Amino acid sequence: MSGRQPTVYLHIGIAKTGTTYLQGLLWHNRGVLSRHGLRYPGDLPGDHFRASVDLRQKPFAGEESTYEPGAWDKIARAAVSAPDRAVISHETLTRTHLDQVRRAVESLRSASEVHLVITVRDLGRQLPAVWQEQVKNRGMLTYERFLDDVTEHPTSNQYRHFWEAQDILDVLGRWSVAAPPDRVHVVTVPQPGSTSGLLWERFASVIGVDPAVVDTDVPVSNVSLGVAEAELLRRMNPQLRERLDWPAYERRVKVGLAARLAAREGSARLTVPPERRARVQERADQLIEGLRTGGYDIVGDLEELRPVFDDRPVVMPGDIPVEDLLAIAAECVGDLVAERPLGRGARRLAPPAAAGRAARVEQLLRRGWHRLQGRRRGRRAA
């Protein structure tokens, strides 16, 4: 042991900036990191999430099962008892209010120093990523309405919910009682096409770890969906919300079905439509200037926070033909039928049989859709 109190690094977000990737690296390499003087406390991968929920005293998505009183204090005690350094990391800490920040600071008062780490990414990628994450958490709001709310309607609940966690300057303002600007590390997420592992290298430089000592081959759990796949899930959510409680939804849909949908190739990727881009660029300029003049330790390049848009045609979720959604749904159902364990003595479907079953399911779904549309037209006529 070093005989001194440790330095604690609080990685407070922001959501959709590679946080799941970084937390996966920390968790899967906690043994080797400990040997290099860094503790990542917790007995289970979700302990930092439960600690954040406890600190904010707000169950995730209103689900009481996510709230574990005492979870924050347990993580904090483990952090301040580390021999040298410790990291606490969860993106929902961006939603912490000032009195809750003070509670966090008090629980870490025996640390020699507290540093804040915040990972940030350009709004051009953040907006579609956050909507998609909402969909994977049972959200039903259309992408078009989401963009309208968060860019044009400051009094809307969606606007407040989005910017509470995504306004970097506001988040750092609330957390300013935890550390002075020179102990606040703003880590920018590289633009697409950058060197693989660059985000981890930047993060590791802040927490005092040689990035080469960890195994970077870890499972990716927070997958991204294409436009059509995200829209299909959004349209399924009203039914899924009624039939599945949160633990079942998280296991079967957010992790299971979403991974299946993300594995599909060739789907268009979600982006910000041209008519919204000027407003997004304007907000990005304000954030960059605030970070540039804030006295923070910038790890990376603030220019990476300027959204980069190309000239490729934009596909919006609301423009996806119903037939395309039906085809994806049939494909997923066919896969599930082919993979589901059957009764004793039964054989799994061979790939050709599975494909035939998928086509049959698509036919039935399409027939049901047209029947529903006919009933709606009949009701309107009546």
Q: Which features would summarize this protein structure in a list?
A:
6-stranded parallel beta sheet, globular, alpha/beta
Helix content: 40-55%
Q: Major β-sheet, in short? A: 6 strands, parallel
The ordered string of helix (H) and strand (E) elements is EHHEHHEHEHHHHEHHHHEHH
Helix/strand class? alpha/beta
Identify the overall geometry.
globular
Number of helices: 15
On the 0 to 100 scale, the average pLDDT is 89
* Strand coverage percent: 5-15%
Number of strands: 6
* Low-pLDDT runs: 342-355
Rounded to the nearest angstrom, the radius of gyration is 23 Å
Gap between N and C termini? 81 Å
Strand order of the largest sheet: 2-3-1-4-5-6
Describe the overall structure:
The chain is α/β, with parallel strands linked by helices and 382 residues long. 52% of the residues lie in helices and 7% in strands. The protein contains 15 helices and six strands. A six-stranded parallel beta sheet has the order 2-3-1-4-5-6, sandwiched between helices. Helix 11 packs across helix 14. The longest helix is centred in the last third of the chain and has 31 residues, at 351-381. The chain starts with 6 loop residues before the first strand and ends with a helix. Residues 342-355 have low confidence and may be disordered.
